[in-house]
Structure formats: C-alpha cells, structure tokens
Amino acid sequence: MTAYAATNTDRIVGNLIRFGRIVSVDHEAGTATVDFDGEIIEGLVWAVSRAGDDREYHAPSKDEQVCVLSPSGDLAQGVIAFSISQERFPNAGKDENPKTIYADGTVIEYNKQSHSLLIDASQSSGHVVIKCSSATVDCPDSTFTGNVTVSGSLNVAGASKMSGNVEFTGGSVKHGGKEIGSSHKHSGVQTGGGDTQGVV
C-alpha cells in the first residue's frame, strides 16, 4: 500500500465516526451545521425516532455535542446519529426515571417507583393545551389546586359539596323543576312568625 493509499484509508476510517458541536440549525431544511474541531460541515441531517406514517421532530440546538456517522468516511454525507451530554448540558436526570427538560424550564418526567407522570410548565409560566373531540379522565380522585373555569355546560351525576360563598349571575336556579332563584315566590305568606308554604 502506498503512503497516499494508507493516508486516505486512515482519513476514511477516522471520519466514519466523528464527534462535533452544533453551530447552527436550519429548521426549514431539517439540517444542521457541525463543527469538527475547526472543520465546518453544513447541511447534515439528524436521525429521528420515526420518519414514516408516524413522524417525530425534535431538532438539536446550538452548541449541542453530537456523534456523526459518515458513509465511506465522507463527512458531507454524514448523519447526526445522537447527542452526548457535556459539562454545559449535563444529563437531565440522575436516576432510572425518564425525564425531559426543555430550554424554558418545562419538565416532563415519569417516576417508575410512584407510577406518576409529571408535566411541570410552572417555570416557563406556560400553559398546557389538549385539543380533541372528546376526552375521558378515568381516575377515582382528582384535585385542582387553582381556579377552574368551565365555558360550556356542566353536568354532575354524583353528590356535590361546596364550602365558601356561591354566587349566581344571570339565568335561573331550579330545584325539582321549580324556580328557587331571586325571582321565585312562596305561597301562604302572611304577617307573623309562621313559616311560608312551599315554593310556587
């Protein structure tokens, strides 16, 4: 083998697996520019978990450390295979529980011991939106720690208990088909200390 051939072989083998740093991301093209210790390669795609009928998208971010696999050692044809934690961006968790931390502080975590799923968007002051034609929450107990607003109708099949003041604005209040709101009337009313009869 000539010196040139040996050098070329070393280059090919050395480029098969390379570690680099994300310089920039083109979200529209779905590609990223990677810095390999001063060697800048543009237009590299990144691997995704699904890319068929079901698709997934989670782009790498600037300064993320990545591993690139290059067919025949050609970096221009490389694919960003996966990311590697580093001092600036350490592992999201330190136990067996799956956890995702987003840049704005939002956390999604599943605790295998307590069998609980946490979605915490409090640090980002964000909100969670669920859109569907219908939804069922099947659990024996639900707790809401803040205010609750219902824009549509409310149907309650079980018993209800309330503490604190209750205020009704507009509409009517009925019990057993009879009006018991501000406009209701009683029969059998007379001056004195006796009780009125039932609601009219």
From TrEMBL:
Alphabetical list of InterPro entries matching this protein: Gp5/Vgr_OB (IPR006531), GpV/Gp45 (IPR013046), Phage_spike (IPR040629), Vgr_OB-fold_dom_sf (IPR037026)
Protein's name according to its UniProt entry: Phage baseplate assembly protein V
Gene3D superfamilies referenced in this protein's UniProt entry, alphabetically: 6.20.150.10, Gp5 N-terminal domain (2.40.50.230)
Occurrences of domain Phage spike trimer (ranges): 136-175
Region annotation (Disordered) ranges: 175-200
Positions with biased composition (Gly residues): 190-200
Domain of life: Bacteria
Matches recorded under Pfam families: Phage_base_V, Phage_spike
Lineage: Bacteria, Pseudomonadati, Pseudomonadota, Gammaproteobacteria, Moraxellales
Domain Gp5/Type VI secretion system Vgr protein OB-fold: 20-82
